[in-house]
Amino acid sequence: MNHPSPQPGHAGSKHGTQIPSQTSESLTTSQGSPITDTDHSLKVSDRGPTLLQDHHLREKIMHFDHERIPERVVHARGAGAHGIFTSYGTAGDLCIADFLQSGKQTEVFVRFSTVVGSRGSMDTARDTRGFATKFYTEEGVFDLVGNNIPVFFIQDGIKFPDVVHAVKPHPDREIPQAQSAHDTFWDFVSLHTPAQAHTMWNMSDRGIPRSYRMMEGFGVHTFRLIGTGGKSSLVKFHWKPKLGVHSLTWEESQLAAGADPDFHRRDLADAIDAGHYPEWELGVQIFEDDGTAEFHGIDLLDPTKFVPEELVPVQLLGKMVLDRNPSNYFAETEQVAFHPGHLVPGIDVTDDPLLQARLFSYLDTQLTRLGGPNFGQIPINQPKNPVNDMLRDGFHQHKIHEGIAPYKPNSLDGGCPFMSQLAEGELPPLEYPQRVEGEKVRAEPVSFSDHYSQARLFYRSLSRTEQEHVKQAYSFELGKCTVPEVRERQLQCLANIDAALAQAVTQALGLPVPEAETAPGEVEPSPALSQVGGSWPVDGRNIGIVIGAQAPEGHGQLVQAIKDELMTPLTVAPHGGETSAGVKVERTYFTARSIEFDALVLVGDLAAVKDAQVPLDAKAGANPGSGSAVDPRVVLLLQEAYRHSKAIYCVDDAAHKALATAGISADAPGVFTVAPQSLAQQLATTLAMHRVWDRFPVS
């Protein structure tokens, strides 16, 4: 067997005095035993549960979990909030979990996060977002640990160290930070083609959400719900945001990374402080548990697959409202520990091989990150119901236990604690008695081998505008790769997904268009996957009211009218303090940037301020040939908002001067001249569509 020669500067190099650490040409365990398969965990048949005896899986995951301390290896940068989940009582016979019973209210803590970057990275990088919810139920803690994307890069948990090693910064330079636009990531996903579906979602607008408040959540895996009489159903969990699913433009995400790297956590905290409490509805797609774990040719145990909502609608079970910010980031948001094995009666796992490995990994990683086995005693992780686990001692033990017999059976403590009692014919509350049989193998079912159809389904379900953004994203990411073979392999994958997408990206890169290896099959688009075309509430949307040195007449009434429509008015003026009308100035020309506003309102004369600090990019944004005295920072604000398809309103003729200086026509789509008394209502109507999508039509 031929092996590549060691590269200079890497293990095996003869340069320098470093002792080589990786001396075998073949993969081995840490103890030197040869490895013949590192792509599949050891299971009972190709579709059975993963076996605890799989030493290679445990060693690989264990070492990966402890690579970085104390920061999380992934999901290091996050934001959290407290809230309440209220059940609709619609679960009925589907699930016996107490928190899903009618009218039941349960405290929750939610942590949103990026995946790739460190704690100090920016919020708005193109990345998957974590969406993890801790339910403090009366039957114990239930953790729904999901993402804002319903599919994952890998099918088997044994590959998790591989995908994270690939997407993290290059180990020789520790760059790029919080980005997938580099050789190692695209090297991996172009070779490990099950990643293509998740990658397609990441390259779409879903990879750069507008806000955590405007982000869907998914459980990713298929779970099992146990209903009355022990009936089992398979489900996929969904979080549906009240405000709809919206995204940033690519330029906005880049501006935010520099001007406000805390853009998402600030947005979440500000909205809660302002009383615009974020809301999501929890729902499930329900599938019959007939023993096949298959639906319309989609393997429900494959975490790289999703089921379109047109085929299986989401049944809503309850509503979550986040109404309280953490009082201490470290104590709550940083120390919270989630685990997909934190289950309650009525909810169980399936044989999804990625989920099976997570059941080991999440528990193991807390030992290093939170300093030992007693992380459940940290206040943010403590159950709200009584606990008696017979676990003792260890690092950071804060409980003073009584009794002398922490074992079962015992007589010295009177036999306490007693076992939970089951009624006659009642099943154990946490483990469904699923029958499993088969040989021990490292393999996967044939149904896992389709790596392109779901990426094709997602792409062809998007609007033309969204598809254009996907083309641009791939062009940027692959344009950052320096190894030609990596670009060529990924372009081949795109050709296998969609010919038009591959052609657009290859043209941008100046490369030939590859032929599809097999003819792409036809798919039925899923309109639910597009973010364009709906109408949504505008609660908490930020409106920039741009005024001049003198506050216009009726400014206070304008601010109040916008508040009455549940939007957030932010006055932007040349200087801070209060306006002549006594209205607080939240932003100045110098501190404001277009990214924080969903729409702009121009009022009065926006003349330049003498001796003002004007950034160079703002000076460049002005139109020097116009002879205008409009402040160049206002011009830049307008030009950016216009490029980002945001609505711009003028409430008097004086504001038209600023439009003309910025080179914007008063008749352009999404540019309006309105009377002050009708402004707020028109704002609400326009922003319900999120952006002015017809400003830059895609042919």
TrEMBL record:
Entry-linked SMART domains: Catalase (SM01060)
The enzyme's E.C. designation: 1.11.1.6
Top-level class of the enzyme under EC nomenclature: oxidoreductase
Pfam families from the UniProt entry: Catalase, Catalase-rel, Catalase_C
Region (Disordered): 1-49
Reaction(s) catalysed by this chain's protein: 2 H2O2 = O2 + 2 H2O
Binding locations of heme: R72, R111, F160, R358, Y362, R369
Function: Decomposes hydrogen peroxide into water and oxygen; serves to protect cells from the toxic effects of hydrogen peroxide.
Molecular function GO labels: catalase activity; heme binding; metal ion binding
Heme found in the keyword field: yes
Compositionally biased spans, kind Basic and acidic residues: 37-46
GO BP term, pick one: hydrogen peroxide catabolic process
Essential cofactor(s): heme
Protein name (record): Catalase
Active-site residues, record numbering mapped to chain: H75, N147
Source organism per UniProt: Glutamicibacter uratoxydans (Arthrobacter uratoxydans)
Domain Catalase core, residue spans: 28-416
Keywords, sorted A to Z: Heme, Hydrogen peroxide, Iron, Metal-binding, Oxidoreductase, Peroxidase
Protein's UniProt keywords contain Secreted: no
GO cellular component term, pick one: cytosol
Residues joined by cross-link 3'-histidyl-3-tyrosine (His-Tyr): H339-Y362
Record field: compositional bias (Polar residues): 15-36
Family: Belongs to the catalase family. HPII subfamily.
